[in-house]
Amino acid sequence: MAACQSRLAASRRACFDPRAPIIPMANKDVTDPARMEKIVSLCKRRGFIFQAGELYGGLNGCWDYGPLGVELKRNLKDYWWRKTVQEREDVLGMDGAILTMEQVLVSSGHVGGFSDPMVDCKTCKARFRADNLETSQCKEKPSVCPGQSPKCELTEPREFNLMLQTNFGATGDQIAYLRPETAQSIFCQYKNVLDSNRVKLPFGIAQCGKSFRNEINPRNFTFRSREFEQMEIEYFCHPDDGMRLTEEWLAERLKFYGEIGIPREKLHILDVPDGERAFYSKKTYDIEYEFPFGIQELEGVAYRTNYDLGVHEKGAGKSLVYFDEETKEKFLPHVVEPSAGCDRTVLALICEAFDEEVLTDDKGKEDVRTVLRFVPRMAPIKVGIFPLLKKNDEQVRICREIQRTLQPWMTVFYDDGGAVGRRYRRQDEVGTPFCVTVDFDTLGENGPELAGTVTIRHRDSMAQERLTIAALLPWLLERVR
Ligand code: GAP
User: Fold this and answer.
1) At residue 279, what are phi and psi to the nearest 5 degrees?
2) Separation of CA 297 and ligand 1 centre (Å)
3) Ligand 1 center–CA 286 separation, angstroms
4) Whether pLDDT at 1 is above 50
C-alpha cells in the first residue's frame, strides 16, 4: 500500500529536510546514462551482479549476485543488523516465512489493493505503468513514449495486483503469496515477540529478507526488481510518541547512510505531503539518493499509526492490546517503520563508489584508473596480499601465513599474477582499500631494520607505508569494522 502511495507521489516531489541546512533540490531529471552503463558493465565484468537466467536469455527483473556482489551485500546487511539489533537494547530480530497466508494479506489490504495502475498497448501488446508513461519507451518506436506514435493504441488504466501468488499443499488447492514486504510477518508475530521476550514499549522488531512484487516495468538495473531484499524495522510505541520517534528514526537512518559511505549531500528527504501518503500514515519521509538515472527512493520512514495492528486484530479476532504495567493504560501500539531496500542500497553504494581517475605519469602520459571507493567496512575484499615475486618461495610462504592470520577476521585475496602495479589496479577496480606486499625488504635482504615488515598500499591515495607483520591484524581491524 505504501508503495502505491509513494509511487503516485513520485512525479510531484519537493525536497524537504527538517534538520540540515536546506540543500537545493538537484534536478530530478538530470541523469548520466554513460556513467550508469559503465557501472553495469563493471558489475558484470568483475562479478558483482549478473542477470538471473542469463544463460537462457535472462529473467526480467531478477538478479544474481556474484562472488563480490554477495560480499558487498552481506557487509551491508551485517552492518544494518549490527547497528539496528545488536547495538540497541530496544530492537529484536526475527526471520519470518516468505510464503504468506492469504488471510494475512487480505487483512493488511494487499489482496484487495496492492496494485499499480497499468495500461496495455493493443498494437504491440506491451504493458506499461500508467504513472510512468512519460519515462517509458514505446516498444515499436523506442524514441517516443508509449501513446506518442500514431500506431499506439493504449487501453484505459486498470489496476494490476503486484503480488506473486502460488499454490501449495498435497492437492495444490491452498493459495499463498510470496510476501510483498517483510513487514507483515512482524505485525503478525508482534504479540509472540512481546510475550516471549518480556520487553516493554517502545521496542522494535527488525527483519531483513526477500520480498517479491510482480513489477510491471522492472528497470534501472537492480533498482526496481521483482525479487529483492528489504531491511525493515517496525518500532512499536505509545501513540503520544509516534511523531517524535519518526523524526528520531529519520535522523538515525541518515546517520547510517553516512557510515556506509553515502554522503548526506547526495541524499534528499521528501516529506510526503498530505493526500499522497497512505491514508493511515500521519507522516512519511522518503530518503532518496542521486542515482545516475535520477533521484530515487532508497528508504521510507513512515509513521503508520496503529493501522497494521488494528487490521490484524480485527482479521484474526484476537486482541493485540498492550497493557502498560506502570500507568495501567491499555492501548493498541502505534508503529514507526523505517523500511530500506537492500538491493537499492547496494546499487547506491556501487554508484557512489565508482570513480575514474586520470593519472599522468612522469612522461606526461595519461591513464585512467577505475576505482570503487567503498568505505572499508563495505568493501567486498578488505586486503589484497601479494608477493613481489611469485617465484620467490620465502615471499610466497610469508604471504600465505599472513593470509591464514587475516582470513578468519576479514575477506582477503591472494594474487601473484603479473606486475604488482597491475595487481593493485585489479584491486582498485573492485574497491579493495588495502594491499599488502611482501618484498625483499620483508626478508631482510636490504638490511635488518626492515626485516619482518610489509608494504601497505592505500587504494584512494595510492600512498604506501611499512608495517610490521605482527601489527597488521590490529591495524586492519581498526579500519575495516
Ligand atoms: N513495508 C513498507 C514497504 O514495503 P515500500 O516503499 O513499498 O514500503 C520499502 O518499500 C523499500 O523497499 C523501498 O524504499 C525500496 O528501497 C525497496 N523496494 C520496494 N520495491 C522494490 C523493488 N521492486 N525493487 C527493489 N527494491 C524495492
Assistant:
1) -60, -25
2) 8
3) 11
4) no
